[in-house]
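Appendix B. One record, verbatim.
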Amino acid sequence: MEELRRTLRYPRLRRYLKMDDREADDFVLLWEQVTNPVDLAGHPAPGICRDPDDEPYLQTALAGRADHVVSGDGDLLALEQVEGILLVSPAAFAQILAETVRPR
């Protein structure tokens, strides 16, 4: 959650989301309530990232059986797919959502 909290404070993202500190903190609290922690025990890092600092993200996605990893990180995006998990940019994920989620 600290990564999310830190990311929501990026100036470029703040301008896009139009969030102040309180709203960002509220979002993180909500996110904590609607997500499930992933136990990484028994799930080694895959060891395939160009940047070793990115390994925990793939490790978590694999352990949690994620469908997507959404990132702006070029090293992660270069992988495109890992064991059925799609690695996509925020814009690509927004498009995926737009195509799969229909208003009622």
